[in-house]
Amino acid sequence: MSYPARMRKLKAGFCAILGLVISFIPGLAGAQGNFQQPGALHSLWKVQGTSNVVYLLGSIHLLKATDYPLPAVIESAFSNSQVAVFETDIDKLEDPDGQAAMLSKISLPEGQTLQQNMSPKVYQSLTKHVAEVGMPVQAVEQFRPAAAVMTLEMMELASLGADPEYGVDKHFFKLAHDGGKRIVPLETPDFQLSLLVGFSKAEEDLLVEKSLEEIDDEKRLYNEMVAAWKTGNAISLEKMLNKMRTDAPSIFKKLVTDRTASWIPEIEKLLQGSQNAIIIVGAGHIVGQDGAIDLLRKKGLKITQL
User: Fold this and answer.
1) DSSP symbols for 192-214
2) Which of 145, 154, 193, 229 could join 204 in a cystine, given CB atoms 3.0 to 4.6 angstroms apart?
3) pTM of the full predicted structure?
4) Where does the pLDDT of residue 243 fall: very low under 50, low under 70, confident under 90, or very high at 90 and above?
5) Looking at residue 116, what is its pLDDT?
């Protein structure tokens, strides 16, 4: 694939996953290999409601075609649900007009440059990595820092065969849409976009710096993370996905903790309903301290990992 064609695909993919806010998370692509044998655990939990069940499925936003089919227990949880809940409205993310608007918002104001919006040290590191993946610096100069490093990460992951088209979210969103399930977005694309463009310059610098620190080790990191996801290893997932809790606590709070807490009332509402539901969100929102499982257990709900 030519560089321009590759960039067009990556920018489309970037828009498609923009609402998933993953620029700070290492290793979101799929590893080769099979899932655990039957009887093993998965990144899937069942919460018992008043007269129904709500499933929590930790999502990986980029996978490979070879990662499918997904385990039967995951597909069954989806089939057994009448309501499918996602982080955002994926239809709106993929609408051409919406993508154009998003690209406009993540671009710097006319007359500003990426270099002007970053510290010299971090800018030098970013441009070095951009050159190493075969991109001209001009390809990211138009973007705000968080969007620039996200584009770089997309390039890195794409070179390893990762594709948002095979993400767990996209897989089940299409099935939910085609199957007539009730689809519930937890956040709007505009809200999620505001998170990426609402950082202070200091926060953006830190976000880019921490993301770049792990890019050199991207392949090992994502292979380990997906292996943990496939085996339902919540402790390893928490350690890998939520590393920024200690590296950049204010950013982690804004991108993860606060958002997860804001979803709990909607989950409780679903648990009080009569229809089964499956909630498919980034795995980092489900596991660990202040993750959805932790918050729901504190409310006395019965939760079982499947």
Assistant:
1) HHHHHH---HHHHHHHHHHHHHH
2) 145
3) 0.86
4) confident
5) 93
Percent of the chain, pLDDT > 90? 44
* Residue 87 tokens, joined: 């982080």
The tokens describing 133, both together, are 């993946």
- What is the pLDDT averaged over residues 20-35? 36
Beta strand ranges found along the chain (DSSP E)? 44-48, 53-59, 83-88, 182-187, 277-282, 303-305
The 8-class DSSP code of residue 243 comes to: T
Residue 15 pLDDT more than 60?
no
- Nearest alpha carbon to residue 32 among 66, 55, 8, 9: 66
**DSSP line for 148-177:** HHHHHHHHHHHHTT-BGGGSHHHHHHHHHH
- CB-based contact 69:290 (threshold 8 Å): no
Write b or e for each residue in 263-301: b if 16 or more Cβ atoms lie within 10 A of its Cβ, otherwise e: beeebeebbeeeebbbbbbbbbbbbbebbbbebbeeeeb
Mean pLDDT (the chain, rounded): 84
- pLDDT for residue 129: 92
Instruction: Note if the bond before 69 is cis, omega within 30 degrees.
Output: yes
Amino acid, res. 207: L
Q: Quote the CA–CA distance of 112 and 13 in Å, as a whole number.
A: 25
Q: Could you give the CA distance from residue 264 to residue 56 in angstroms, rounded to a whole number?
A: 12
Residues 6+ away with beta carbon under 8 Å from 82: 181, 182, 275, 276, 277
**Structural domain that includes position 91:** 3-305
Contact 280, 84 (CB under 8 A): yes
**Which residue has tokens 């996801």?**
229
Residue type present at position 119: S
pLDDT of residue 301: 96
Q: What is the pLDDT at residue 272?
A: 96
